[in-house]
Amino acid sequence: MDFMPIFTYHRLTAPSGVNSRFDFSVDAFRSHLEILKASGLRCVVPEDLRANGAQAVENSVMITFDDGYETDYSAALGLLAGFGFRAVTFITANLVNKPGYLSWEKIKELSKAGFSVQSHSLNHRFLSALDHSELLNELRKSKEIIEDKTGVKVDYLAAPGGRVSAAVVKASAEAGYSGIFNSKPGYTLSQESGILVFNRFVLKNSIGARRFRNIANKDPLALISESAAYSAKNLIRKALGKK
């Protein structure tokens, strides 16, 4: 199925606090929101797909945040609200209340404000490297804890590191998820083992405005470039024996 671009962010920070290639300054994130708005795009969350079906995909993007950093609340929430946008926060259950991460109270506030609250596993382990029992524990416990602590229904999972295999998809279905998000660039939505599999563009702070705009507007050349980089990274990982 032809689908919308899905963007993955991690931590937002002041320009002086950018310590990782996955950290984005607040100003850089704001510029992305401005590009989306100027392009006539709106931001949806997975729940919109159930309510509006294919119509939710038209002229839309999805913004996701992995790990559950505190800046989802202190920085992203206000910026997104200013543009009339919503987003998904994928929570690593055992990182909640740790320094730099969201508290359960703030996660509940995000949910009330329109964020979709979903799972990023229990301990942020690479799921494709786990045996079946470990995998089910990571998936089930995270879902149970987040639902118990927040009162929201958790239906979707973002795999840590984007590492998704057929076994991970099958276990996610067994654990009760409706969909799983990977880190493979693309504009398609597929179904495997009875659940939805979402592709995502994982953004690094080296991305320029033009490149971001091209991805948001589904430029075929942008997809070719992103896919080539993703494939090269996977080849290196496999050559090193990593799952």
Write the layout of secondary structure elements.
Layout: E1 6-9, E2 12-13, E3 24-25, H1 26-38, E4 42-43, H2 46-52, E5 60-67, H3 71-83, E6 88-91, H4 104-112, E7 116-119, H5 132-150, E8 156-158, H6 166-174, E9 179-181, E10 189-192, E11 195-198, E12 201-202, H7 209-216, H8 220-239
Parallel strand pairs: 1-5, 1-12, 2-3, 4-5, 5-6, 6-7, 8-9, 9-11
Antiparallel strand pairs: 10-11
Helix pairs in contact: 1-3, 1-7, 5-6
Low-confidence stretches: none
Q: What can be said about the biggest beta sheet?
A: 6 strands, parallel
Return the string of H and E elements.
EEEHEHEHEHEHEHEEEEHH
Q: Gap between N and C termini, in Å?
A: 27 Å
Helix content: 40-55%
Oligomer description: single chain
Number of separate helices: 8
Provide mean pLDDT, rounded: 94
The tally of beta strands, per DSSP, is: 12
Please identify the structural class as seen in this structure.
alpha/beta
- The best one-word shape is globular
Gyration radius from CA atoms, angstroms: 17 Å
* Binned strand content: 15-25%
